[in-house]
Design goal:
Oligomer: single chain
Shape: globular
CATH class of the largest domain: Alpha Beta
Strand order of the largest sheet: 1-2-3-4-5-6-8
CATH superfamily of the largest domain: Aldolase class I
Radius of gyration: 21 Å
Largest sheet: 7 strands, parallel
Number of strands: 12
Number of helices: 12
Order of helices and strands: EHHEHEHEHHEHEEHHEEHEHHEE
Amino acid sequence: MKTHRNLPFFVPHAGCPNCCVFCSQTKITGEKCEKELALEIAELRKMCESEGGSFDESQIAFFGGSFTAIKRDRMEALLAVANEYIAKGVASGIRISTRPDCIDEEILSILKRYRVTNIELGIQSTDDSVLRKCERGHDSRASFESSKMIVNGGFELCGQMMIGLPISSPESEIQTAHDIVRMGATEARIYPTVVFEETKLYDMTLSGEYVPMELDEAVKRTAKCYRVFLDAGVKLLRIGLHASENLKKAPYGANHQALGELVKGEVYTDIISDMAGDCGGRILCVHIRRADTSMLCGHSGRAIARLKEKTGCAEVEIIPSDLPQFKPLITTRSV
């Protein structure tokens, strides 16, 4: 099996035309918003030289801000350096993240010229009332239009969405996931909302205007959206923000270090219980891919307890197996 990873290079908050109520890129990345281009290029070269070459496939990934909204000469300078390392075999392509309202045909032609292959679009929600409340600066139409241009341009689209935004509901979040599938995304990321200090959302939290999600609620709401992507064959790249010392300082929100495993455990217990049906007090035997066992066995037996509740089994026996993917085999036996 080929190994793949991103070589992440953060261009924090650079280029964003406005500041959403939830946004604090400095807190997320630990970086200041502007750097001298020469310093930035030197750091990019150092990252490529130190981290590249150890995987079968790698992408240089420009994250942290709206990459296509930074000054054009800066964007092209960074892309040109990345192309040098593609030519050296350090990476196979380039991935960028940006906003829906920072995409047009001219920008896409530049990205194509510099061998960008994947574009991650910060859609966040397709509910216009949520976008307005979050002061996002664009409506859902921008997401649909830019996604169409990206897919038609031959790029791989990754749709990023958020759970638990102000006035968002589980129903609107599920609809956003379905919309991302309809947009032609082959990849997705789900970010349950985290509240950082020095943001408008932090002030809204202190005033009671916004109530952050507790962990259990965040897991359940995220799991429903993950199931949409799973059923549609859209690859989920990540659940939750990347862990960092700065992220640990977020005072409110679902900021659990194993959030992704908790969500996947929720989804997989639903899948397994649907397959098993009513076990009538028998022992439920679940043959599962070895890599997935921690999702069911860890976290104080959370998933096991849920399986017992949903299937009525007496016990759950997890059997690690050499299955090629998550398609568990279910059997039962007498106590």
